[in-house]
User: Fold this.
Amino acid sequence: MNPNRDAALEVGDLGVHFGGVVALRNLSFRAVPGKIIGVMGPNGAGKTTLFNLITGVYRPSTGKILFGGMPLQGLSPSQVCRAGVGRTFQSGRPFANLTALENVLVGLYYGADARRMRAADAKRRAREILEFVGLEKHADRPVSSLNLSERKIVEMARAIATRPRILLLDEPLAGFNPLELEPAVRIVRRIRDELDVTVMWIEHIMKVLMETCEHLIVLDHGEKLAEGSPGEVAADRAVAQAYFGKKGATGRG
Amino acid sequence: MRDAAAKWAIAGVVAVLLVLPWWASSYHISFFVSVFMYVALAGSWNLFSGMTGYASLGQGIFFGIGAYAFAVSTVLLKWHPLAGFALAAAVPAIGALLLGSVLLTTRIRVAYFAIVMLGFNEIAKTIVANIKEIGSSHGLTFAPLASNLVAYYFLLGLAIGVTALAYAIKQSRWGLGLRAILADEVAAEVTGIGTVAHKMAMFVLSAILIGLTGAMIAWNWSYVDPYMAFDLAVSFDMLVMAVFGGVGTVMGPVLGAVVMSVLKEGLSTTIPQFHTIIFGALVLVLIIWCPGGVIQVVDVLRRRLQGRRTRVAREPAK
Assistant:
């Protein structure tokens, strides 16, 4: 159905600086379609900056971003979204004054491939998406009345509604209590498995990333430190150093 | 039921307003002209600022531009008034496109936008006051309007049109997009909403409607000069009335404009020396006490009444 379903996201030599501060430099990777790709790294490593560059919120200083061969750099965030790149925010930014259903409707009406949908069809589809993430019972509640984890799930539903081919999740689990983690991880898995969407996932809970992702990219101080399968990354000395310091690394080695 | 009742009530009010001039004195006609003007202005301000969150402190610049476009075309160029009105819509539209392409394409802070608009209004006033060809500070004088009923019906139509437009937009997908922008512009943008196009369209629409109001009012006054056309009070009044009535709602600006025009008229005739002070104090009290505006008061009262009714209705069942 979707001709570019297998479009890969390719980032080449990507860099950005704000004044004299280099936030990201020489970053290259290829996000293989159909995978769940974890992005990890300490605070300030440049993870969110990377998402902001891909989605057009920031302009890159160097390098290129290709999605299915089409350059994304220079597009506005709304154009990037319509090209098939969805995203959520670290702090959770659903539209608080709208109901959960309306949040999803915005995604349906404005996202990729947003051909004129009849209002009734859109509403039905929106309810299906809310059902998919398990929030159908809150469909008609204003988002401002939901708790943090529900708000972040609404945001995820909104991103799904834009029909992305790749979904960038920025710490979707931050602020969740332990009981809420597993259902949320299951939603991310099902986004890939059932909706056939490639996922790039920033998270600080390493255990979750190690268990769920097929591929990991580790950033530190704006540069790529390591990349590979969770096993490879876990065995990487540079990663151990960045996370545990020199001592930990030599102690383990 | 309730919506149907509201619709009939609105239709009734409009019908009364349509036939009112047969009985009303000319004093009342001119009072209604000013009420309609304020409804149109507050509603137009709300279309852009209320719906996008970009409060404009100088939206009156389009009132002045519209007034002058009409004056120049009908007085100096001797165009037909209809052509004058067309120009009074076109010039503010072009002005809004130019201003918007500077102010709304980058991520300017909302507070800066408000102040910059106020600045542009003052700049426009000074420029117009220094162009001899259009009368400099003396302005231009129109051939008097045959009857103030022209202004009455024109502005009544405009007030209804602005309100109907707000209603239609709120019901539409476009309106949903605007509510998303109001909530979080960056999030709206990454959800696929072309935020610049949305803001620009509303800015231009607001400018056109305010420009037409300015043209009609200038004609009704039978002259225009830079200080009345670009009077900051025009900018502030429409803002205060929209906020007073309920920002971002359909009926809020209507209520705000009606209530405040009546208050203004009442206070200025009974206590002419102090009316602006008392007026200002009243506005402050309402905004502090009820930030959602008059419409929120109406909603709360309605819900209380409904609550009582449903409670009464439920009791026998128990």
In short: The longest strand of chain B covers residues 140-141. Residues 25-231 of chain B form one domain. Confidence is low (pLDDT under 50) at residues 313-318 of chain B. DSSP finds 14 helices and two strands in chain B.
